[in-house]
């Protein structure tokens, strides 16, 4: 995935490390790279906001720190559906006006399947 702009660090590399960044697992130098990138790249900034939101959401749902990858992608898919309602402000916080948390399937059941 790329926004089409040229950046010192490629978008895909940022997105690869975004989750670790949110979890504060990256070295300072890497954090700097990502922060710089987020400053100049709104698609990545938006993704960053979404990931932060997913983390908070999942923690609230199942109380666990480690977000299972499949659950994370389910939540992300759900959030993407309401993407137009996601407002990124300064990158540190995201206001989501309407996310239907209750329709996120946590236990692996497929609704209507
Ligand atoms: Zn980017
Ligand atoms: Zn960009």
Please characterize this protein's 3D structure:
This protein is mainly alpha-helical. The protein has one domain. The protein has four helices and two strands; from the N terminus they run ααααββ. A two-stranded antiparallel ribbon has the order 1-2. Helix 3 crosses helix 4. Residues 3, 5, 7, 11, 41, 43-44 line the site of one zinc ion.
Compute the number of strand runs: 2
Q: What gyration radius follows from the Cα positions, in whole Å? A: 15 Å
End-to-end Cα distance: 31 Å
Shape: globular
Which molecules are bound in this entry? zinc ion
How do the helices and strands follow one another from N- to C-terminus?
HHHHEE
Describe the SSE topology.
Elements: H1 11-22, H2 28-40, H3 42-62, H4 69-81, E1 86-88, E2 94-96
Antiparallel strand pairs: 1-2
The chain binds zinc ion (2 copies).
Quick structural summary:
This protein is mainly α. The protein has helices at residues 11-22, 28-40, 42-62, 69-81; strands at residues 86-88, 94-96. The protein has one domain (11-103).
What tags apply to this protein structure?
113 residues, mainly alpha, two-stranded antiparallel sheet, 4 helices, 52% helix, globular, binds zinc ion
């Amino acid at each position: 995935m790329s926004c089409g702009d040229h950046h010192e660090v490629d978008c895909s590399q940022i997105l690869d490390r975004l989750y670790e960044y949110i979890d504060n697992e990256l070295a300072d130098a890497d954090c700097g790279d990502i922060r710089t990138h987020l400053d100049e790249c709104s698609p990545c900034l938006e993704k960053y906001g979404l990931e932060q939101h997913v983390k908070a959401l999942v923690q609230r749902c199942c109380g666990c720190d480690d977000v299972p990858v499949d659950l994370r992608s389910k939540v992300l898919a759900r959030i993407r559906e309401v993407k137009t309602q996601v407002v990124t402000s300064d990158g540190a916080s995201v206001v989501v006006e309407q996310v239907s948390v209750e329709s996120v399937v946590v236990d692996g059941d497929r609704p209507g399947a």
